[in-house]
Specification:
This protein is of the alpha/beta class and 471 residues long. It contains 20 helices and 16 strands. It binds pyridoxal-5'-phosphate.
Length: 471
């Protein structure tokens, strides 16, 4: 056991002297630096920080024979560092140099400027969130986004909730609660963060009926599994994996014919949810929401902050008959969107009315549309800014859309590789900088992928790197 302060510690006469040399909190509060701190922080916060600094020093002295007692200035500096650390928001800005565009751990889609402005407007004062300004009566929370969802997808009806997981849960609860949902064994996916299709079906009060095998499921498998209890045929987009080789699946068109003939709902959990054809950005084909509906889905669920590039939200587009039961379900209230996300969603959807404007002003789309030349130029600019500080090598790399979009689709990119400094401690210092910087460690070096770094971020990125190198 460690000796306590005040106890006689026979082998360390000098240690107890050093402990006794520590000043009292009261004395430190009279220091001029403490007075300055009290103008920024409250007296209580300063006292707590001084206590914390003293405790840490005491612990150091007790556990380490060679530790020395800092002077008053040193103690105040430690307290100041504690105060500054505690004042930093936990949720803060990160420069994403991982090359993963829709990085769920890093907040997925950076939002368009128009969406941010809308958030400020909605958050600053009151709004007509659930008020119909034309009639003066209570209005619908999603009055602004429903017409846009219809317009942009061609659907009869639209709805938006807190995220796509909630959209799927709500839809299955409302359409299949107490009944059966048929899903292919090749589509019983886990999206991440524990969102597993079988669990969501169970949670929705429905029974999962698995059909087919992992690699092959045919239309006949679905047809054979239909019972009087069947309510929904669910197709799930293979967001984050691919089944390759000897495979077969029933298409939405085929399933739609079956669903219609047997009086069932066909739901498509599309996940990524592109609103425009990504081939226009020079990327491979990814089914759009409109494509799913055209292929016969009665209801499509998709994310607001994946390929759509907006705020966290779960959007639903489909036939009126598919959506009406969702509007009446008690779960809708529990998964509703807040006003700031709604404002951002409306503003983001509006950008899609003009595809060229969407491609230019929605950061996710703009990132996906970058050319190798642009990435090369950015990498060279960063390398030039680091010249003389570290050996910065510009090299080809591989980036990913992430977020279950374009799975397995490697994107050609360009990175800056920092040769020399040990990558783990450097990465740790970069995570601690403000804004934090997150890169990738590959082959024993820290690399910074330029696909997810904006030109406007290059200066602060270079600054953070240089500071992290010298520490
Ligand atoms: C990402 C994803 C979800 C969940 O979307 P969130 O908006 O994160 O809730 C659901 N289904 C599929 C297929 C997905 O890819």
């Amino acid at each position: 056991m460690l000796p306590h302060i005040g106890e006689d510690v026979d082998d360390t006469g000098s240690r107890s002297t050093r402990l006794r040399a520590l000043p009292q909190v009261q004395r430190l509060l009279e220091h001029s630096r403490a007075h300055v701190l009290i103008t920024t922080y409250s007296r209580e916060e300063v006292v707590a920080a001084l206590r914390g600094a003293l405790d840490a020093v005491r612990e150091g002295l007790l556990s380490d024979e060679t530790a020395t007692t800092p002077d008053e200035d040193g103690l105040l500096a430690q307290a100041e560092a504690r105060l500054a650390r505690a004042a930093k928001p936990v949720l803060r800005r990160v420069i994403n140099a991982t090359g993963v565009v829709l990085h769920t751990n890093l907040g997925r889609a950076p939002m368009p400027a128009a969406a941010l402005e809308a958030v400020v407007q909605a958050g600053r004062g009151y709004s007509n969130l659930e008020f119909d300004l034309a009639t003066g009566q209570r209005g619908s929370r999603t009055q602004g986004v429903e017409p846009l969802i219809r317009e942009l997808t061609g659907a009869e009806a639209g709805l938006a909730v807190n995220n796509a997981a909630a959209a799927v849960l709500l839809a299955l609860s409302a359409l299949a609660g107490g009944g059966e949902v048929i899903v292919s064994r090749g589509e019983l996916v886990e999206i991440g963060g524990g969102f597993r299709i079988p669990d969501v079906i169970r949670q929705g009060g429905a029974r999962l009926v698995e059909v087919g095998t992992t690699n092959r499921t045919r239309l006949a498998d679905y047809a054979a599994a239909i019972t009087p209890e069947t309510r929904v045929l669910l197709k799930v987009h293979q967001s984050n994996y691919r089944v390759v080789g000897f495979t077969a699946e029933a298409s939405l068109e085929e399933l739609s014919g079956l669903a219609r003939a047997r009086g069932l709902m066909l739901m498509h959990d599309l996940g990524g949810g592109a609103l425009t054809d990504l081939r226009g950005l020079g990327r491979p084909y990814e089914p759009t929401v409109r494509d799913s509906l055209d292929a016969g889905a009665d209801l499509v669920a998709f994310s607001g902050d994946k390929l759509m590039g907006g705020p966290q939200a779960g959007l639903l587009a489909g036939r009126r008959a598919a959506l009406d039961p969702l509007r009446r379900h008690p779960l809708l209230r529990a998964v509703r969107l807040d006003k700031m996300a709604l404002a951002a969603l409306e503003a983001t959807l509006k950008l899609y009315r003009d595809p060229a404007r969407a491609a230019a002003s929605i950061p996710v789309l703009a990132m996906l549309a970058q050319t190798p030349d642009q990435l090369q130029a950015r990498a060279e600019r960063l390398a030039a800014a680091l010249a003389g500080e570290v050996e910065a090598r510009v090299e080809p790399s591989t980036a990913y859309a992430g977020g279950g979009a374009l799975p397995g689709e490697a994107m050609q990119s360009v990175s800056v590789r920092l040769e020399g400094p040990k990558p783990e401690p450097l990465a740790a210092r970069l995570r601690a900088s403000v804004p934090a910087v997150v890169g990738r460690i590959a082959d024993g070096a820290l690399t910074l992928d330029m696909l997810t770094v904006a030109d406007e971020e290059l200066d602060i990125l270079a600054e953070a790197l240089i500071a992290a190198l010298v520490e």
